[in-house]
Known about the structure:
Helix content: over 70%
Order of helices and strands: HHH
Oligomer: single chain
Structural class: mainly alpha
Largest sheet: none
Radius of gyration: 52 Å
Number of strands: 0
Distance between the termini: 139 Å
Amino acid sequence: MSSSNNTIGIVSLGLGIVLMGIGGFVAYSNVNNQLVSTQTQLQQAQKERDEFKKQSEEKDKEIKEKDNEMKDLRDTSGARGAEITRNQEELKRSKAETQTVSGCLKGVVEALSYKDDQSKAIFALGAVKDRCESAGRIIKRIEDTQDEQQSPRTSNIGN
């Protein structure tokens, strides 16, 4: 019996070792499966992070481009605003000059209407004397400006 007990003991010990090996293998397999699953999740998370980073960089680039466009528009509108202001000032000056010339001409027309009364004609011309002198300077300046624009430009090279 003793040999049979030894055999049973050895077989039992062998079975125990095999069962422990199987248990260890199952435990290892579970841990390995969890590791593979965690690695897959990590890779997916990294892939999503990289995609978000790429989208963020693209949006940052779009925002920078829009900021530049807005700056260009502000610069352009500022230049146009200055141009509009200059044009308005030019129009105001032209209106004032036109009113001066018009006042002079009205006085001259009134003086001409007194063809039978020389004293009234002289009085009407005297009333618009200052306006007519200003009108004369305005007309002279306009003529000079037109002459400058129409004359050929010459160079002083070689002189």
